[in-house]
Write a structure and sequence with these properties.
639 residues, 2 domains, membrane, protein transport, mainly alpha, 0% strand
Length: 639
């Protein structure tokens, strides 16, 4: 046995420093020897220890699997025992104990007294099957009491019976409202259908589906006649159809008989199972008084028995869904009458966009919604086309009225107006050309702007067909072509209108080449008459050649830039000028300059600067200074 270690205090008192150092060295050697022994022991037995640990882990996993298997076997045995007990109870159900007649009458009276409170509680909580239970067995209790020929018992429950009859209307209305709801859940629809099948025996799945689809169509008709905005109504209609389709698929289509038929057969498993579902028991709290539990247990068989009718399972779901979609489409036929009262093009376009978004979400769940979407889109397209055509017709007539008002406004276009004074002023010919400009009269600008504003909404509507727009533009051009301007002022007004229509960016997006050809032909015809009349008017003033050319340039410049062919003002002036040989030489030089592009600026200082597709730098600078000059012809029109 090893000697005990000496006390530290005694060691330091009795031993020297050398002895203490030797003792410490011995302790260190002893500790190292023990460590080497432990390491060798662990190294020799490492494989055995690892094997033992793995065995322990494997045993734990096997124990867990064995425990789960035992639990599964116990559950299966318990379920098998329960099923066997149910089958034996269904086959060998002992006869109910004999109930005294007085106790049976009391039980029926108690049931009829409890039926109205039970029914009200069911309506408050939307427990429609419970409400159908109270209504059904309340009727059977009343029938039992009346057949018993006990006048006193009947008189005691006459008031609850009247109350029950009044509540029956509310129950049926609540069932129909649940079936008509747009966002009802499948469980709520299932409860409502079960309650309807209980109240409208004999049960039939085909009749239940027909009633469900009828109520859904009625709900769609209510949505069509609602006062909400059209976009919201269309979105709700499509969602309503998709939900109806989805509920039908879930309730009637299943692996065996469908959830609705399965729930009905579970509810009506035996003749008394439906009564047992709703009656109060000691283990189940209910709105009925607990003192009435014994009365419910002693309920007569004539009251508690409900014939367990088996619902027919032969339902053609696909054919019924197709008929339902047709019925929904017929319910939506009330929309055209409401669309006829809408005159807002933007609202119709917003409704179409909302319909497309809702249908895109709904078609993923209900493929049958596609036909309904196309049906509504046809209604919207019909209204859009009619509204666009009416708008364009009104715009064309308004344009004609505005143009005729321009002609009749002598203060704006008369010979005594500001434009005539500007043409015939005797200002210095060296005055800058900016003084020669004459802005379009306010009435003329308003006339052209009216057309652009009226057509703008239709132009930016990509869903609207271009045919009515092009027809309206062509009618507008034909209206301008039918004009018969007499005075120079009226002719110049027609030229300005042609230039504005020809260069309008609004009309470029929708007009056809025929429109531009017609406007161009009108401009060429009126421009020739205007140039002839204006040249004759200047010649009649009997001025010298140079002042006459200044007036000629001012008249041409007053028209403003245009990509249309320039009026033959200079040729008409040369033809009408009764000049000498020197004047003819000057006019010939001007004619040559008109044909020489290199001398453009010189000609511009004398005659009007026509803004062609590639104007000179000076014209571009003036166009930037005056935005109204930047209008050019459409690209597909060849000058």
């Amino acid at each position: 046995m090893a000697a005990p270690a000496p006390d530290a205090d005694a060691l330091f008192e009795q031993c020297s420093v050398r002895d203490i150092e030797q003792y410490a060295v011995k302790l260190a050697h002893a500790a190292e020897e023990k460590q080497r022994a432990v390491r060798s022991l662990v190294g020799d037995s490492f494989d055995d220890l690892l094997l033992v640990s793995r065995s322990v882990v494997d045993m734990q996993s096997h124990l867990g699997a064995l425990q789960s298997t035992l639990d599964t076997l116990q559950d299966a045995a318990r379920r098998t025992g329960d099923r066997a007990a149910e089958r034996s109870a269904a086959r060998y159900e002992p006869p109910p104990p004999a109930v005294p007649p007085s106790l049976g009458l009391a039980a029926a009276q108690q049931l009829l007294l409890d039926a109205p409170p039970l029914l009200r509680a069911a309506l408050r909580t939307d427990a429609l099957v419970q409400g159908a239970w109270a209504l059904t067995f309340g009727r059977r209790a009343w029938t039992f009491l009346t057949e018993s020929q006990d006048a006193e018992a009947v008189a005691l429950v006459s008031e609850p019976w009247s109350d029950l009859q009044t509540l029956e209307v509310g129950v049926r209305a609540r069932i129909d409202a649940q079936l008509q709801a747009t966002a009802a859940r499948t469980s709520g629809v299932l409860d409502a259908l079960l309650a309807w099948m209980v109240l409208d025996a004999p049960a039939d799945l085909a009749r239940a589906m027909a009633h469900w689809h009828t109520q859904q169509a009625h709900g769609a008709a209510l949505l069509c006649t609602a006062s909400d905005p059209l976009a919201q109504r269309l979105e709700r209609l499509v969602t309503h159809a998709a939900i109806s389709w989805r509920h039908t698929e879930r309730l009637w289509r299943g692996s065996d008989e469908g959830p609705l038929a399965s729930a009905w057969h579970t509810l009506m498993r035996t003749d008394t199972s439906f009564f047992d579902v709703g009656r109060p028991t000691r283990a189940l709290l209910s709105p009925a008084p607990l003192t009435a539990v014994s009365f419910y247990e002693a309920m007569p068989e004539a009251v508690r028995t409900y014939p367990a009718a088996r619902a027919s399972a032969s339902v053609d779901v696909d054919a019924s869904l197709a008929q339902h979609m047709e019925r929904l489409g017929a319910a939506w036929d009330a929309l055209p009458a409401q669309l006829a009262t809408m005159h807002d093009l933007d609202a119709l376009l917003a409704s179409r966009s909302a319909l497309a978004r809702a249908a895109e979400r709904a078609e993923a769940q209900a493929p049958g919604v596609r036909a309904l979407r196309e049906r509504i889109e046809r209604m919207l397209d019909t209204r859009l086309d009619a509204l666009v055509q009416a708008t364009l017709a009104r715009a064309t007539s308004s344009f004609g009225e505005a143009l005729m008002a321009v002609w009749d406004d002598e203060r704006a276009l008369g010979d005594s107006g500001a434009r005539a004074v500007l043409w015939e002023s005797d200002a210095d010919r060296a005055a800058p050309l900016q003084r020669w400009r004459s802005a379009r009269p306010p009435c003329m600008a308003a006339c052209v702007h009216l057309m652009e504003e009226r057509f703008y909404g239709a132009v930016h509507t990509s869903d609207v067909a271009s045919a009515p727009l092009q027809a309206a533009c062509l009618a507008l051009a034909e209206f301008v072509a039918d004009l018969a301007p007499v005075s120079v002022t009226q002719q110049q007004a027609v030229l300005e209108v042609c230039a504005a229509l020809y260069t309008s960016p609004t009309f470029q997006r929708m007009a056809s080449p025929a429109f531009y050809e017609c406007v161009r032909a009108v401009h060429v015809r009126v421009a020739e008459a205007w140039a002839t009349a204006h040249a004759a008017r200047i010649v009649q003033q009997r001025r010298a050649l140079e002042p006459s050319l200044v007036l000629l340039a001012r008249a041409a410049y007053a028209l403003g830039p245009s990509p249309l062919p320039a009026p033959p003002l200079l040729p008409c002036f040369v033809k009408a000028w009764p000049a000498s040989a020197a004047d003819h030489a000057t006019l010939a030089a001007l004619a040559d300059a008109a044909d020489a592009p290199a001398d453009w600026y010189h000609l511009r200082t004398v005659l009007a600067p026509w803004a062609l597709h590639a104007p000179p730098p000076s014209a571009r600078r003036e166009a930037a200074a005056r935005p109204g000059l930047a209008r050019i012809a459409p690209r597909f029109v060849v000058s």
